[in-house]
Amino acid sequence: xxxxxxxxxxPVDETLRAWFAPVLENGSRWCAPNLDTQCAxxxxxxxxxxxxxxxxxxxxxxxxxxxxxxxSYAQEEVxxxxxxxxxxxxxxxxxxxxxxxxxxxxxxxxxxxxxxMSTNPWPHWxxxxxxxxxxxxxxxxxxxxxxxxxxNERADAAILRALAAVGAxxxxxxxVWWFEMDSPAVRRSTDRKRDLALLLYPNLxxxxxEHLTASDFGPLTALHHExxxxxxxxxxxxxxxxxxxxxxQNRLLQFTALRxxxxxxxxxxxxxxxxxxxxxxxxxxxxxxxRKLGLYRRLTTVPMRAAEQAxxxxxxxAGVGQFKASRGGEPxxxxxxxxxxxxxxxxxxxxxxxxxxxxGLLAPAARRWKL
Length: 371
Known about the structure:
Helix content is about 40%, strand content about 20%. The chain is α+β, with helices and mostly antiparallel strands. The N and C termini lie far apart (about 45 Å). The relative contact order is 0.15.
């Protein structure tokens, strides 16, 4: 029997209720000032998925804005990866494309399975009720494209096949790094063994979740901003101290901090298992500290060790590919699946262009330079 699809403004699932409770009460910008969105929830086949709904919001973080992902953030990534000589002409082309995308309401989307994180593991779902789910969402938001986030062939082959069968565009999104913790590549990595020894080296104190307090989350949030917003991009989610405190207090993520003996915090990491996959959505460290301290090496070891203990694979997101490859990570292309057949031609052409640019330029660049 094929299940009906239900759309609600409040989740039924216990984890979703805990995760989104303050967002639904205070608005999404309580979570991060550059996450301006509305939330809803889809329940089908005994699973429940969070949805984010947007109309424009051009300055949003890329986790809620396809425009930011494929234009604003992509411009920065191309220049950073290949240098200004090649990168600036490509960035100018993306900027010109962006003007047309704005006129075509490119950000008018419903994003499916969006936990307001960069990486959003999917439940095991064969998609047998996908048509009903799509019909329900199109009936409620008839002028929105439907964008299914964070899909990869390693973990989500069944739902990708189901989406392709209903005519979804499967668009390369980014290259993520996948770790099977019992694989020979991971077990034999000498870099990983050195990282573990460094994590245990006593020149820094490793502070576990239970020994943190709510007052610690001001400086810990600042460390996350220092890495993800200042070093990488302002288009990453600018999580607030209130949001990270909520995730810590309710044990929705497991936090670990690094601190100098008798001194301030110098690093933070938070990880958790979602639908059987470990992710690490919060990382930050003091960029002013000497490289020999190996702060990133230590912090990356934390979710690797947690995944090993949980018996779960680790999706370590995108970026720093050479580093992750040397520790046994496998490059896996992540996709978004876009359903836009219900939209007029003027709203569909942007997705055709983005698909062509992603397959012809962005995905090859990610593979070549291990982004």
